[in-house]
Amino acid sequence: MQAKIADRSLEQVIAAIQRLDLEPIKYKLMDTEEGEGWSRARADCTELAYRRFLTLLVTYPEETLAPSKDVDKFWHGHILDTLKYAEDCDRVFGRFLHHFPYFGMRGAEDAANLARAAETTKGLYRRQFGEGYERAAYCSAASTGSPAYCSAIQASDPAYCSAIQAGGPGFCAAVDAGRPAYCSAIDTDRPAYCSAVATGRLNVSLRPTL
């Protein structure tokens, strides 16, 4: 996906992205019947990632980018409010920002192109915002039988890290969880606590003996 700016500076477009009112989209996504049943934390985190994805589109218009699963769902939710989406596009980009929903589905070569676009997006996201894409958005690849928390959020609501298999909980070290948090890199059959976590009860070495 690529975006070009019409008759306005990059700074103006990015400022307009930050001013977008995305509360209605989150409200719909949080609805358990008509939406996805997301928690407020998940909706807020994905909103941030969506704004940043739009920022990448206009900052690197020569690149082919691909949103994460949840950012794509957020984008779909925005598009479904057709009048608002058209008005937002005109206000922000000066043109309609189209979405091609079949990228990666048209055979092996297309799937490989999508994978490359996803890696490009992750790299540019880290360069632009100083943190990994997965820290702001939920990844549908996670096994969420038990919650695993991402380091970028408050853990009152579960967020899922794509690198973690959550059948045995794996919590990221930077979370203020109000309770023990587990390191995603360890064998969580025998949980170990991260020294960076504020648990209100204990702090244990980042490299415990298992």
Task: Describe the 3D structure.
The chain is mainly α and 210 residues long. The chain has two domains: 10-135, no CATH class; 141-210, no CATH class. Helices cover 40% and strands 0% of the residues. It is built from six helices and no strands. It has helices at residues 10-19, 23-30, 40-59, 69-80, 82-92, 108-129. Helix 1 (10-19) runs antiparallel to helix 3 (40-59) and helix 3 (40-59) crosses helix 4. The longest helix has 22 residues, at 108-129. The chain starts with 9 loop residues before the first helix and ends in an 81-residue tail after the last helix. Residues 137-210 have low confidence and may be disordered.
Oligomer: single chain
Overall body shape? globular
Whole-number total of structural domains: 2
Order of helical and strand elements: HHHHHH
**Mean pLDDT across residues:** 74
Question: What is the share of helical residues?
Answer: 25-40%
C-alpha termini separation: 45 Å
Q: Number of DSSP helices?
A: 6
Could you write a compact summary of the structure shown?
The protein is mainly α and 210 residues long. It has two domains: 10-135, no CATH class; 141-210, no CATH class.
